[in-house]
Amino acid sequence: MSIQIDEAIRTVQAGNDLAADDVQALIGTMLQGEAEDQAIGELLLALRAKGEVVSELVGAARAMRKHMTPVASAGGILLDTCGTGGDGSGTFNISTAAAIVTAAAGIPVAKHGNRAITSKSGSADVLSALGVNIDTDRDVVERCLAEVGICFCFAPRLHPAMRHVGAIRRQLGVPTLFNLLGPLCNPAAASHQVLGTGKSSTQRQLAEALHQLGTEHAAVVRGLDGLDEVTLDGSTSVIEVTAAGCREIEWTPASFGLSPSGPETMQADGPDESAAIIRQVLDGQPGPARDIVVANAAASIWLCNPEGGLIAAAEQAADAIDTGQAQRTLEALSAMTSADQ
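Structure tokens predicted for Anthranilate phosphoribosyltransferase:
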């Protein structure tokens, strides 16, 4: 390793950034169980105090990717809707519902996620409430992707090396570098991604990191109302990521042919309430919940077929709901994963 962890701690405490290669080596050492908890904690806290930069995110993500359990896919376009979470809005699991609708519209989806850490309901929690067995073997995950068009990549199952840093992360009790890595480390190596974040400070960093990590096409979205999704309550700040780099654009409800609505009509106090709202959306019930799912699914569809435009993508998303295909997709995912129990 080019830099030792004690040297890295001193470097960061002095206010200096670490190179991507050095962070990759350091995180790799942690994930192999070869670093002491005290040193891991000191480095993570020093990075947090300084403020993590893109090179550090990229290096850490490369290490995580090297140590994760890969999920095979057929190649070509593959989408993820994993975001940072923790926006404090209390809304239902919008990106999870959007992932189901996107898959129903014919785009393969490898949804990466975990149980709730900073919110009332994580993607794993709501999928469990919807009847999906989230904790399946890798071959079941791969079969779901191949046959249903959507799979759930449960982070604890597919990132087993994270057990080596779990205890110290819980002991620290504050967000660290690792909290930003989930959206950067899809086990199925998704080529396309809608990544939601509620913080402007991380939006640009995550976009630049995705670019350096080679993501084919991504949209890092942040509702200007603080929602870590495409919002219908005002505008959504978007950083589009392509091989050429990053560019900033803005979406409004009108961009999708939809009417404005506020998040107060989309609240869910836990996974059961979130699942109930998603069931209503997939059953075709009109209203703000359906509209925001359509908007977020449209962002995903557009990302994979930008020539069609956002309004056409929103029409595709609505059609996937209205024809019952989204409901059938969820049922198929539930049936295939439950057969593994």
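Residues 5-67 form a domain with the Transferase, Pyrimidine Nucleoside Phosphorylase; Chain A, domain 3 fold (CATH 1.20.970.10).
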